[in-house]
Amino acid sequence: MKHFVDPPSGTQLLVFAKGEELMAGLASFARDQALAGAWVDIVGGAAAVTLGFFDPSAREYRWRRFEEPLEITGLHGNLSWVDGRPTWHVHGTFSRSDYSVLGGHVKECLIGLTGEVFLTSRGDRLTRVHDDETGLKLLSRP
Amino acid sequence: MKHFVDPPSGTQLLVFAKGEELMAGLASFARDQALAGAWVDIVGGAAAVTLGFFDPSAREYRWRRFEEPLEITGLHGNLSWVDGRPTWHVHGTFSRSDYSVLGGHVKECLIGLTGEVFLTSRGDRLTRVHDDETGLKLLSRP
Amino acid sequence: MKHFVDPPSGTQLLVFAKGEELMAGLASFARDQALAGAWVDIVGGAAAVTLGFFDPSAREYRWRRFEEPLEITGLHGNLSWVDGRPTWHVHGTFSRSDYSVLGGHVKECLIGLTGEVFLTSRGDRLTRVHDDETGLKLLSRP
Question: Mind listing the pLDDT tens digit for each residue in B63-95?
């Protein structure tokens, strides 16, 4: 993964290569750069994704793996730090060979062609705290 | 709804809670903070949404309400002021339990789990002016 | 197409009118304004789109034209310069009259109602270089 820092705007452009795992790469990048907070917007091409749907009655994610070429039509999300570890919360959509679209909570995304990430840094460090009502970890001040 | 202002980047992160109405909350926030202009990018989980499709021949929106758990896979849009009232124009996509995706113009979005809003402020105040050709209110300088 | 520059935030809002071609308009804008780099986020309404899906085995795009009213539910992408010409790489999703969603690599997008573009400038000029492994032009420093 290469990254292009732009001092005037304070944004970064990251370019992931074929075969790299996007979510793991974003976590490594946050750790290596000691990012406090960030928001990302991502396009590109994937070879496989693991998508989650949170079932509110079961209070847990249901996961499904899709192994096929997909265009990344828009992933979005933010960085927080939970127990000292970078946690990216990313949702988004992917288009298939027939131009129909899949989406969900993104757990894994294997880059198939390229992954172009527009990253806006934030100076504040957020965390996530367990919420009894939903069963999820929600954004909060540390 | 909680909000985390980040002075270095000039962006804000808003976190909506279960049971809050996203579009009404964004309008209240714009009024309370006296925001001039803004652009938002949103992820999270909804319990119900009202989506619009503008029918160009009928020159009006057709609305449909979806009442089911949905992942918010990407909502985007901007703030303008029409007759002194904050008006958010937000479009986006939602994924269902089978990972298929719905989308359209977002009129209402009841938060089911959480709503994470990345807001970039703009200093200019825009309005919307009725356009005879399309039948819509289009962005314009006041 | 009108544009509203916001000096405090460094962002621009472009508003395309019915009948304008979005991708050609973005290219003209980049040339006229001598933009170095940029990222866009777009909502609005289209009358027709040409979407691409890159077939990794054939190493080429397959294109399909959709001629129908569509809500632009989220387009994203970046500007680079290839052989002195502005090149926008934009992916995204569009919703149909039944609220189902199409997506892919966006080659053409004829505006049907309006096209609202949130543009963040970057000071760095990127280019694209042919990559033998994928058959695509990938983002790189000039």
Answer: 999 999 999 999 999 999 999 999 999 999 999
- C107 and chain A: CB distance < 8 Å anywhere? no
In chain C the domains, ranked by start, together with CATH numbers, are 2-140 (3.30.1330.80)
State which amino acid sits at residue A36: A
Residue B65: how many other CB atoms lie within 10 Å: 10
Taking 90 as the threshold, does the pLDDT of residue A7 lie above it?
no
Mark A106-118 as b/e (b = at least 16 C-beta within 10 Å): bebbbbbbbbbbb
Query: What token pair was written down for B48?
Result: 């119900």
Q: pTM of the full predicted structure? A: 0.97
- Taking the Cβ of residue B128 and every Cβ of chain C, the question of whether any pair is shorter than 8 Å is answered with no
- Cβ of A93 within 8 Å of Cβ of B72? The answer is no
Q: What is the pLDDT of residues C16-32, one digit of tens each?
A: 999 999 999 999 999 99
Burial group, residue C80, by CB count within 10 angstroms (0-12, 13-18, 19+)? buried
Cα separation, A45 vs A22, in Å, equals 11
Tell me the DSSP string of chain C: -EEEEETTTTEEEEEEETT-BHHHHHHHHHHHHT--EEEEEEEEEEEEEEEEEEETTTTEEEEEEEEEEEEEEEEEEEEEEETTEEEEEEEEEEE-TTSBEEEEEEEEEEEEEEEEEEEEEES---EEEE-TTTSSEEEE--
Give the mutation candidate from C68, C71, C128, C138 for the A interface (greatest A CB count, under 10 A). C138
Output the CA torsion C76→A7→C86→A101 (10° steps): -10
Surface of A (39-58) touching C: CB under 8 A: 41-45, 47
In DSSP notation, A68-115 reads EEEEEEEEEEEEEEETTEEEEEEEEEEE-TTSBEEEEEEEEEEEEEEE
Give the list of residues 6+ apart from residue C31 with CB closer than 8 angstroms, or none: C86
Dist. CA C24–CA A33, nearest whole Å = 37
